[in-house]
Write a structure and sequence with these properties.
The chain has 94 residues and is mainly beta. Strands 2-3-4-7-6-5 form a six-stranded antiparallel β-barrel.
């Protein structure tokens, strides 16, 4: 974004509630900090969880919102990983 133009397809929306992402075994993957039409960013609770996710890995996650008691299950692929935050892209099918 050096030229001042945001070329993102989807606007990122910061989340302030306590939404968490869990995998298909129920293991907590982390707190969801941002979401957009194309994906989301999580902050894993510890290094063990962060190290278990690798670039290109496909998985199914459920985002749970404790305050509203709602949840949504989504197929994702890991697109960004720096150890402290993980970026998932939403994909169709597994």
């Amino acid at each position: 974004m050096a030229d001042g133009i945001d070329r993102r397809t989807f606007q990122r929306i910061p989340l302030t509630d306590d939404a968490i992402a869990v995998d298909d075994t129920g293991r907590e993957l982390g707190k969801v900090s941002q979401a957009s039409g194309g994906g989301m960013t999580i902050h894993p609770p510890n290094r063990e969880v962060a190290d278990s996710l690798s670039l290109g890995q496909r998985l199914q996650v459920t985002v749970m919102e404790p305050g509203t008691q709602t949840s949504n299950t989504i197929d994702v692929v890991v697109r960004y990983h720096d150890g402290e935050k993980i970026g998932f892209e939403f994909v169709t099918g597994k």
